[in-house]
Every structure is written in C-alpha cells, then in structure tokens.
Design goal:
The structure holds three protein chains of three kinds. By secondary structure, chain A is mainly alpha-helical. Chain A is built from 16 helices and two strands. A two-stranded antiparallel sheet of chain A has the order 1-2. By secondary structure, chain B is mainly α. Chain B has five domains: about 1-45, no CATH class; about 70-185, Cytochrome C3 (Alpha-Beta Complex); about 195-290, Cytochrome C3, CATH 3.90.10; about 295-320, no CATH class; about 330-385, no CATH class. Helices cover about 30% and strands about 5% of the residues of chain B. Chain B has a three-stranded antiparallel beta sheet. In chain B, strands 1-2 form a two-stranded antiparallel sheet. A two-stranded antiparallel sheet of chain B has the order 6-7. In chain B, about 10% of the residues are buried. By secondary structure, chain C is α+β, with helices and mostly antiparallel strands. In chain C, the strands form four sheets. Chain C has a three-stranded mixed beta sheet. Classes of the chains: A mainly alpha, B mainly alpha, C alpha+beta. At the A-C interface, helix 1, helix 2, helix 4, helix 7 and helix 8 of A face helix 1, helix 3, helix 4, strand 6 and helix 8 of C.
Chain lengths: ~425, ~400, ~300
C-alpha cells in the first residue's frame, strides 16, 4: 500500500477555530514569558532555593526530550534496519523530533537564569557533568535533525525558488545551492542518521543520570543508579506510541485516512519494549526493596502507582491485544497512555521525587509556569502545522492523477 | 568524710611510691599540690616528668593549685581594654563576680590553670592574642575572655550583643568608663541565703519526697559551698528573663530541675552510695531532726554541740544510748562530780547527798525534786546552792 | 547501491569514529580545577561554644558587599523562632536548637557551605563554573555560570542559592570561604569576628585532631562524632555538638562522596568514548548489512 503513498505539503486553510484557540493559548504563554525576561524567573515561577527545578525542566525539557524519541526510534527502524514499510512515518516523526528538540532548547533558554550565556557549554567543558553531556548531545543532535530535514527543503524548492522582486536575482544561485546540498546529503545522510541514533541513546540515558547526583534528596521510589537505563528504555518505549499519536492527530486535522496498517504494525513493536522497561523498573524496585514505600499513602506512592499502572501496565496489556492494534481509537488510547506514563515519569523524577532536606513548603507550578509550558506546546503544534503545509512531510495517496496516468500508459500500449 | 580522708591517704601513698619521689629532690622546686584530688597525670604526660622535660599536657582546665591570695586581696574593678579594636573597654567588677562565683567553681571557674608558682597567671600568658596562628589547640585571647563571660550571661541576662558589656568607642568613652568603675567599686553580691531544709519532690516510685537538711550537712561535714555546688547558674535565684532580677525570697521558691538522674544523685551518692532508696525517699517531707522527739531526751546546750558519733559510736548505724550520765561520763560518781559545771554550785549540806535524792530515779532529764526531804521547798524557786557561771568541762 | 559506495561508507564511518575519540580525550582533560590538597584548610564549628550572637552573619554580609542592618540589631534573638537557611541575601545563618542538658544554654548552629572535599556542585556544573581551590574553598565563577541551577539540585546540603528576582545577571550565591581574604592571608570574616572562637580555622588535619582531643577531654560535653569528617567523603567545615546531629538540623549522609555514583555512570558511558563509538560501529554494521540483504534480495 505504501507504494502508492508520497509525501506532499498539506493543503487547506491555515486558520481553523482550533488554530485560533491554540494561538490564544500561545499568546498567553508569551505574555508570562515576557514577565520572566523583564522581571526574573522568580516573578513568574514558584521556584525557590529549595526547589530549583520545576515544571519547565520536568515537562518542557525532560518530557520534551523523551517524547521526541520518536525521531531516533523510527530512524533506527526505518533507516538503520531498512524496514521500508515504515517510510511513511519517518518524515512526520523526524519533524516532531526536530520541533520537539527546538522546543526543548527554547525551554532551556527560558529556564536558565543567564540565558545569554547558553552557548557557554560549547567552549566551557565539564566532563563529569551529566548535564554537560545532555547539553552537548542535544545541541549536536538538534543540528543533525535539521540536517536530516534538509532533503524535504530541497525536494520542495528545487526548481521552485521564486523569490520576489530584487531578490529574484538570487533564484538561480539558490537553486544551485539546493541541488548541491541534495547531492551531498544523499551520499552522506547515513552518517547523520547513525549519529542521531547514537546521540539520542547517549542523552536520553544521561537525562536519567541527571538526578542521580541528588542522592538522598530524591525519593527512593525513583532514585536508583540504573536511572539512565530506565530513562533510555522509557524513551525507546514512548517513541512509537508518540509517532502513532501524532500521526493520528495529523491525519484527522488534515482529513487524511489513518494509516492503520503501518500504525498497527508499529504498535505491535511497542509491547516487547514496554515489557522490558517494566521488567527493569520492577526488578530494580525488588532489588532495592523500595516497594516498602508503596505501603504508605503519600503523594509519592500515588504518583508512582499512577505512572506504572496507567502508563505501563494498562497500555502493555492493550498493545498485546490484536483487537487494540486493529482499532484506531484503542490504539490511540493505548499510545496516549504510554505518553502520559512517560511524561508522568519525568515529572515524578524531577519534581515529585525531589524532596529537599530543608523545605519550607512544597512546590506546585505557578499559573505563569503552566501558561508558558502550555503556550509553548500550542506554539509547537502551530509550527508543526505550518511546516507540514509548506514541506512534503505527510504522505498522501498519490492522488486522482495516478490512475489517470496508469490509464494513459495502458492506453498507449 | 571518711572516704575523703581515705582517698587522700591513698593518693599520698601513691605519690610516695611513684618514681618522681624515688628520684628525690624534684619536689624542692615543686611543692606538691595541696588539694589532693589531682594526680600527676592531671598535668603531666608520662610517669616521670623532669624539670627540663616536664611533658606538660595541654591545658587540663582543672584545679591545679589552690594557693590563691585571700579573697579580699583580689582587685575590685578591672578595666579590660587591650583586646578589642572595634569596641570600647569592658569595666569588669572582679569582686562582684568573685562573689557570684562562690557556687560555680569559685576562683577556679575563671582562673582555671596556674603554673606551679603561686602567682596568678593572666589569660594572655597562655592564650595567644592572634587568632591567625599555628597552635589552635586552645582558644585565642578574645575567645578565651568571651567564653568566660558568655555562658553565664547567656543564661542570666539572655543578652549576647556586644554593647551589654563593652563601652561604645566614642568621645564619652573615658567618662563613661570612670563612671562605671565608680559605680561598681565597693559593690558586692548580697550574701547568699543558705537554706536549712530542701524538700525534693521526685517521681520515684519508692516514696516521692526526699528531704535534705542542708545546714546539717554543711555544718557537720564542714563543707564549702563549692564542694557540692560546682556549676550553679545565676538562674537558680534570678528570673529567667533578660536581666532577670533576683526573686525576693529565693529559698522558698519551687524550682524545676532538668538534670539527669545521675547528675541529681551524684552529690548524695558520694557518701550515700550504699544506702537504700527508701532511706531518703519517703512518702512525706521529713521534719528536721529533733533529738527530743526522736529519742525522747532533749539535748542540753552541751550535748547539742557534740557530734552524733561522740555518743552513738563510729559505725553508720548509730547505737542506742541510755540517758544515764555515767554511761558516757564514766567518772561521775557522787564523790567526784563537780556540780558547778551545771551552773549550780551545791551548798555543803547538799553536796553529801546521793544524786537520786534530788534527781528521782536517776533521771537527769526531769527537773529535780525537793519533795523527798522538804515539804516547803520547790525547785527552781528555791535552789540547793548558788548559781554560778557555767563552765564547759 | 554499488560496492564502491559501501567502501566509502566504511571509510567515512571510520573517520567519524576517530573524530569522536579525539573529542573524547579532549573532554577527559577538560574540566574545572578540582584540587584535593593535603594542606587544605578547615574550620571546626563548636556548637557547644557558639553563643548565637550572629556577629558572623554581619561580618559575612560586610565581607561580601551584601546589604545589612547595623551590627547592634543582631542582638535580637527572636529570629531564632524560625529556622532560617542561607540564601542569596545571607551566605551564612545561625539557627538555635534546644539543649536538653540545660534549657538556658541552647545550642546555636551556624550554617553555610560545607566546602566538600568532593563537591557535588563542582561535578554537576554544566560549564565547570565551580572549582575546589588549593586551600579547600569551593568557589564559583560568575563569568562562566549560565544559571541552570543544577548545582542547587545536586548539593546534599542545599546550599547554593539563586537570585530569582533578578532579570539580568542573576547569580548563584554561596559561602566562598572568604577566598579573597584568605588569599591575602586574612582569616575568613566569620572566623575573624567570632567573639568566643566557636569557629577554629586551621589545616583540616589539625582541626580534626583538635576536635578529637576535645571529645576525649570533655566526653560529657560532646557526642562522639565530628560531622563532616567523613560525611560525603569529608568536608572542609566540620561540626562538634552536644547532642545528636540530626536534632541540630544536619542531614544524615553516608560516607560516599556526593557525586560518586553519578560520575561512575558518566565515566562508564564515556570510558575513552568507547561505548558510543562501539554503538556507532554496531549501528553502521547493521545498516550496511540490512542494506546489502535488501540489494541481494531485489
């Protein structure tokens, strides 16, 4: 079936009621964001000396990185293992990853107090810092993602560079540049694809190492030396569900047919990965005997249970069922649960589990923090919409023209 | 008392047996400490200190020598001005503080270390003036001074700010200094009221009241305050408020103690260690010991002056003694007894009589009776002799 | 694809691998100054001696150009009613705790950076803005810091504070062991002002020796524990106390260094950059093999 699919820019009106609502949410976030830049982090967030990291790090950065894992997992599947049947989802996954990482980088930019020094890690290195490794890997990986995206740009604009007015003189050189890029990239793309997978493996796991150094400040339900492995496994397990999730939403938004064949085959890969993740998570729990903390009724125990039951156990059972894989709705629900589970896991690791020795209160994100986070997610969706309407990202059936051609060919015979 | 004597004897014996003595003339330069509750090891490391290598331990902060000047010769007011650069001098009422320290280590509370010479060492002879230094084993001079003051002042005045002791460093400083010095001159702490009887209400199961006869103990064993009261704080009498005034009648106050079981019993156990709990812990507060009540025989003024052991023997359990004079006064027979020691010189007529003629049944506790011989005479309106000035035996 | 392409594939992959190894060795050499000198200095805080006059708080603010009330206002003891923590406006604070042995002599505990021998902040800092100096001080470089606050998440004593209400040039603030004063041969400001010398400044080894001697001599005054001698692998500031440290607001920490596990993981992943390079090679091989199979299959 995929043989008939070809990526193409989406057509249609940009502004729909949904888009307008998203724009308003995004604008609201930007207002609070302005507050952060004019009056300092303290004026917008509930962060303080006891809780240095909050919603922005947990959701925008940690969950953001995890949920952009669709990029490297599908790249590994489609490009490294050459599973051609998944090619229709490679571009949307790549775009999600690219925009996801841009979102992460922006969130870091917002959250750090001295944002104008964000380039410092490039020249000031600290090999023992997990954050340094995450930072460097994310920076390189983001560049890789943009490079991987370039073919879509060349494909879209080769032969179509039509700058208006005075700039039209640049049309020919630009076209030549695009053609050069196209040739070079075709030959060297595999380097970037492998690098992207390696870099992702590294920083997805190092994101887990981040909180290891917090030691006893982190609740034992989550604090473990195997955190990096759990982070990597959870990132891999959320990769395909994330692709399924956004592919279904995109199809719906642009009134395309859901690629249920590809998606259900992709869904079939989720259960084993999710199972391995669950096995490691529970194994670690039994080795460290932290299940004792589940006996007490606390925010931590409830959140842990939610994360594992809602985010791993239930979707694992669902992905094991053929009926679920065949049903777009159930597949969507199962994928959403995995996404929710991983997002919860990141929030738990970075916010819920963090118990400072001297706390004068507990942390809950402020209206400002939530507004900025939600605003940025809205913005992300809008930019995604813009991209798929400009670049050939989403595959569509080759359109009504195809049978005509075939007919014509037949006619010639 | 006996254990004290015993331990003193033991320590002296040990000292004689020690090598220091074996080598002879060392003590020429080093008079042995007079209070015997320290040993060589209090000051010296090793067993054989010599003059060239005394192997002195770091400050033991213990009583080294009791040979201080009498209290009166201590300075009355001291102006301490050498240490502080930031603050003005402290006008220190030495005498007043010496008075106060009666129950918290006395002179030794502050003058905690002295050389074997009799002169008082000033703080600066041991404590270095410079805080940046190589030997940090003891506090520097500033630290040493303040540590002496702060613990008491924290408890009593609750003030830790500099101005509560230091004068301001300004133009008025010297005037203020003279004023304070004049005000403190001749001032002394009011004499401490000594309780007679202290009742402890305890939580003991074996009887909640312990009655302690303070004056009996102090007098009988000729104790100094500091023998028991080693680190009494001002708040025993003064209120626990900033600059707390002494309560008007400290002795009748009820005070809650927070000391541990061991700390509370320590002063008692040094003598009563072998006694049963019930000997002190009873259900009612005890009345002061009254010989007349307990023994049915009032002590006259001569007997009152005696120690219990004089009549009741040296053992811990007193032996019962009858009231016959000759039980103790073996030589008192009618022929030899000089009645004038009782303030009554018998006239010749009565001198020849048996004691029982007047002292019915030989009971000397009862007033004598004339009725055996005389119908018209009665003691004490008529006396069988003349009153003389009493003379002790 | 042709065989020639496959050869170039391998060649390029090898080149990338070599480059990565080169970067790896460079990373291993790069990092902040982290000296554990045998002559490093230490401070012994004797909480049984401290009287809670808070002169150190004033001296600290003055030495670090922080705004402060006049010293005479520091006599106010009502501040002890609530536990306070060091922050960007006060790099050290004194808290007061009950003394079960004598209610009139409460224990006062000065809190500031412990200056760990193996600082978690130093290990964590993304740009290596922290350094452990020859004299034991753990200091922070304004010019490097990006304000990510990972040091705050990492510190087991919850010490680094951040100026949350500054839009521009917010700083991480913490005790710097008065590095400016000590390099000039002066004492740290707090040690210098302490009226009772509850803070004893000296070589760390010597300070530990003195502390042990005090515990031996005055056994009834102290608990037999020098906090900071072994906690998180040792700290430059160490404490003595008359009651259990957990009752004086000290976190219970083991003897393992704070960044130990994290660094072991980091260095494991990046041991001479071998694991990532190996992964790269493995993926390259898989890619090549699947491609070949596909070509042969077609």
């Amino acid at each position: 079936m995929h043989a008939h699919m070809k990526p193409a820019p989406m057509k249609g009106k940009f502004f729909t009621p949904g888009v307008i609502i998203l724009t308003l949410i995004a604008l609201n976030g930007l207002v609070f964001l302005a507050g952060r830049f004019f009056f300092g982090i303290g004026s917008v967030t509930n962060l303080n000396n006891q809780y240095p990291w909050g919603l922005w790090i947990a959701v925008d950065v940690a969950a953001g990185v995890a949920l952009a894992a669709g990029g490297f997992t599908t790249a590994a599947l489609g490009h490294v293992m050459h599973r051609e049947e998944y090619h229709v989802i490679l571009r949307p996954a790549l775009l999600t990853a690219m925009l996801g990482y841009t979102f992460v980088a922006t969130a870091v930019f917002i959250d750090i107090g001295r944002w104008y020094f964000i380039w410092h890690p490039l020249i000031m290195w600290n090999g023992s810092s997990a954050l340094f490794e995450v930072g460097i890997c994310v920076m390189i990986y983001m560049s890789v993602l943009y490079i991987e995206f370039l073919p879509m740009v060349t494909e879209r604009f080769i032969g179509h560079v039509t700058l208006p007015g005075v700039l039209s003189r640049l049309n020919a050189p630009l076209d030549r540049l695009l053609r050069f890029l196209d040739r070079t990239l075709e030959r060297s793309m595999f380097i970037f694809i492998i690098a992207g997978v390696v870099l992702s493996t590294l920083h997805q796991s190092s994101l887990g190492t981040l909180m290891v150094i917090a030691g006893s400040k982190m609740h034992p339900l989550w604090q473990t030396p195997v955190l990096p492995l759990l982070f990597l496994l959870s990132a891999i397990s959320v990769g395909f569900p994330m692709v399924i999730f956004e592919s279904m939403i995109a199809s719906r938004a642009f009134k395309q047919k859901i690629e249920i064949d590809v998606l259900s085959r992709l869904g079939g890969l989720v259960a084993p990965i999710l199972g391995i993740y669950l096995a490691f998570k529970l194994g670690d729990m039994f080795i460290r005997e932290t299940f004792v903390y589940l006996q007490e009724f606390s925010v931590e125990s409830v959140m842990w249970t939610l994360e594992v039951v809602l985010g791993i156990v239930i979707p694992l059972r669902m992905f094991l069922s053929r009926a679920v894989l065949k049903s777009p709705l159930l597949l969507f629900i199962a994928s959403s649960l995995v996404i929710l589970g991983v997002a919860l896991n990141r929030i738990n690791n970075f916010v819920v589990a963090y118990t400072p020795p001297y706390a004068f209160g507990s942390y809950f994100p402020s209206i400002g923090e939530i507004s900025v986070t939600v605003g940025f997610i809205a913005l992300l969706v809008l930019i995604y919409r813009v991209y798929v309407m400009i670049f050939p990202v989403i595959s569509v059936p080759e359109g009504p023209a195809t049978p005509q051609t075939k007919y014509a060919i037949r006619g010639k015979q | 008392m006996r254990t004290r004597v015993l331990s003193l004897v033991t320590i002296v014996a040990l000292l004689w047996a020690s090598p220091v003595f074996g080598q002879g003339s060392k003590w020429d330069k080093h008079a042995p400490p007079k209070k015997a509750d320290i040993s060589c090891q209090t000051c010296h490391a090793g067993s054989a200190p010599t003059r060239t290598n005394p192997a002195l331990l770091p400050c033991p902060r213990s009583r080294i020598l009791p040979g201080f000047h009498p209290d009166q010769s201590g300075p009355e007011v001291l102006i301490m001005s050498k240490v502080s650069k930031e603050y003005g001098p402290v006008v220190f009422s030495h005498k007043l503080h010496a008075d106060m320290s009666t129950m918290s280590g006395g002179c030794y509370g502050c003058h905690h270390y002295n050389s074997t010479s009799m002169a008082i060492l000033s703080c600066r002879e041991c404590h270095p003036a410079n805080r940046a230094r190589t030997d940090i084993s003891m506090p520097d001079l500033k630290g040493a001074y303040h540590r002496q003051c702060m613990d008491c002042h924290r408890q009593w005045s609750k003030a830790t700010d500099c101005q509560s002791c230091h004068l301001k460093r300004d133009a008025r400083q010297s005037t203020e200094e003279a004023l304070q010095a004049a005000r403190l001159k001749g001032k002394s702490h009011p004499e401490l009221a000594v309780p007679k009887r202290v009742v402890y209400e305890t939580r003991s199961q074996r009887g909640s009241f312990v009655t302690f006869f303070h004056n009996d103990h102090a007098e009988r064993f000729s104790l100094e305050c500091s023998d028991c009261h080693k680190s009494e704080s001002c708040v025993r009498c003064h209120e626990r408020t900033p600059g707390g005034k002494a309560s008007p009648d400290p002795l009748s106050r009820t005070v809650k103690t927070q000391r541990t079981m061991e700390a509370l019993h320590a002063p008692c156990f040094s003598c009563h260690g072998q006694d049963k709990c019930e000997e002190c812990h009873v259900d009612q507060p005890r009345e002061a010991f009254d010989h007349a009540k307990s023994a049915g025989w009032a002590l006259n003024r001569f007997h009152r002056a005696l120690s219990c052991q004089k009549c009741h023997g040296q053992s811990k359990r007193f032996t019962k003694v009858d009231t016959k004079c000759v039980t103790c006064h073996k030589g008192w027979t009618p022929g030899t007894f000089r009645h004038e020691i009782t303030s009554l010189k018998l006239d010749p007529a009565h001198r020849e009589l048996d004691c029982e003629s007047c002292h019915i049944d030989g009971n000397f506790a009862n007033p004598p009776s004339c009725a055996g011989c005389h119908d018209d005479k009665a003691y004490p309106a008529q006396k069988p002799g003349t009153t003389v000035k009493a003379a002790a035996k | 694809m042709k065989a020639q392409d496959r050869r170039s594939f391998l060649k390029t992959a090898a080149a990338v691998g070599t480059a990565a190894v080169g970067m790896g060795t460079a990373t291993a050499a790069a990092g902040p100054k982290n000296i554990l000198s045998p002559d490093r200095m230490g401070v012994l805080v004797d909480t049984t001696v401290c009287v809670g006059c808070r002169n150190c708080e004033h001296a600290c603010k003055t030495a670090h150009d922080l705004p402060t009330e006049p010293l005479s206002s520091y006599g106010d003891r009502s501040v002890f009613e609530q536990m306070r923590r060091p922050d960007d406006t006060a790099l050290c604070v004194v808290n007061e705790y009950e003394n079960p042995k004598n209610a009139d002599l409460p224990y006062d505990v000065k809190v500031q950076c412990m200056h760990c021998d193996h600082p978690a902040c130093l290990s964590a800092c993304i740009v290596g803005a922290f350094s452990k100096e020859e004299n034991g001080a753990v200091v922070w470089d304004t010019d490097k810091c990006i304000g990510c606050r990972y040091c705050m998440a990492a510190c087991p004593f919850q010490i680094p504070a951040f100026e949350y209400h500054k839009a521009l040039d917010p700083q991480i603030r913490k005790c710097d062991f008065c590095i400016e004063r000590t390099t000039k041969g002066e004492l740290p400001a707090c040690v210098n002002i302490c009226p009772v010398e509850a803070l004893t400044y000296g070589p760390r080894d010597e300070v530990i020796r003195i502390a042990k001697q005090r515990i031996r001599t005055y056994g009834d005054r102290y608990v037999d524990h020098i906090y900071g001698e072994h906690e998180v692998g040792g700290t430059s500031w160490m404490y003595m106390a008359g009651r259990d440290f957990k009752d004086l607001g000290f976190p219970k920490l083991g003897q393992n260094t704070a960044p130990g596990v994290s660094e072991a993981i980091q260095h494991g992943i990046f041991a001479y950059f071998m694991p990532p390079v190996a992964l790269y090679a493995l993926l390259g091989a898989i890619m090549w093999m699947t491609k070949t199979r596909k070509e042969e299959g077609l």
